[in-house]
Amino acid sequence: MNDGFVNEEQLRNYINNNDWNTYNANIKELLKFTFGNKLNIGLTFTAEKIGGQVKPDMAITHNGTKKYISIKKGSGNSVHQEKISVFFPFIESLFDLNTLNNLKLFHYGDGTLDDSGKIRYSASECQTLYSSEIASLNKKFNEWGKLKIFLDRFLFVGNVSSTLIVDVIYHGNINSGIWASRDELYKYFENNSFSSSALHFGSLTYQVWGRNNDFKAVHPDRRYVMQVKWGGILNDLNKIKESRNYE
């Protein structure tokens, strides 16, 4: 079983139907943060798995309130994957055809807009070849009104209509973790600049799941899937924690 899924299961089992006094200091702090003035240490907490193509991994119910948690672990976290057959029309609807064409140039990386090129370039080569197109995309993607839409799609809601929206992102395991609320993350991404030559949404980066540059990939279909990574997740969560401690 995937290590991330094992971690999620362990967290759920640890929190589910246990009394306050059984929890360690880390989980107590998470629950205090998550439930705020709804916290009643005399009442139990129930934790359940959330399945399907939504962003929360776990729901915790306590004192008549349900909160949705997204659980992360490790570094270089991939936080979103989507077929370009879905993502490309979304980009055109959000911006225009010219913006979509710039993205296609970077994604296909073969000098064409329809994946018909005979030579495919690496991600780093594309970053050089299409630097002006990437700069234009970054300017559009990181305007706050649009960036917020991307954050919802990649971190909090997903690309399907859902009422299951992440309240808290938690990075860690039972014994040690760091977290931030959705509102804290909105504020952080809105109030900080994230300059980069990579194609990015704040500190999240866009990549092709598998470019298949040599036309010999075991999984050639991965060329048609976009992926978003959050390599700086711990740095971002730590900065939010620091600012929270000063308030």
Write structural notes for this entry.
The protein is an alpha+beta fold and 247 residues long. The chain has a domain at 77-158 and 194-233. 41% of the residues lie in helices and 19% in strands. The protein is built from nine helices and nine strands. A hairpin with an 8-residue loop joins strand 1 and strand 2 (58-62). The longest helix is centred in the C-terminal third of the chain and has 14 residues, at 233-246.
Please name the defining characteristics of this protein:
247 residues, alpha+beta, 9 helices, 9 strands
Rg result: 20 Å
Largest sheet: 5 strands, mixed
Helix content: 40-55%
- Given the structure, what is the number of helices? 9
Structural class: alpha+beta
Strand order in space, largest sheet: 1-2-3-5-6
What is the number of E strands?
A: 9
Distance between the termini: 41 Å
Mean pLDDT: 94
Strand content: 15-25%
Unreliable segments of 5+ consecutive residues? none
Helix and strand sequence: HHEEEEHHHHHEEHEEEH
What is this entry, summarized?
The chain has a domain of 122 residues. The relative contact order is 0.15.
Write the topology of this structure.
Blueprint: H1 3-15, H2 25-35, E1 46-49, E2 58-62, E3 65-72, E4 77-83, H3 84-94, H4 97-108, H5 123-129, H6 131-141, H7 144-156, E5 168-172, E6 177-181, H8 182-191, E7 200-201, E8 204-208, E9 225-230, H9 233-246
Parallel strand pairs: 3-5
Antiparallel strand pairs: 1-2, 2-3, 4-9, 5-6, 7-8, 8-9
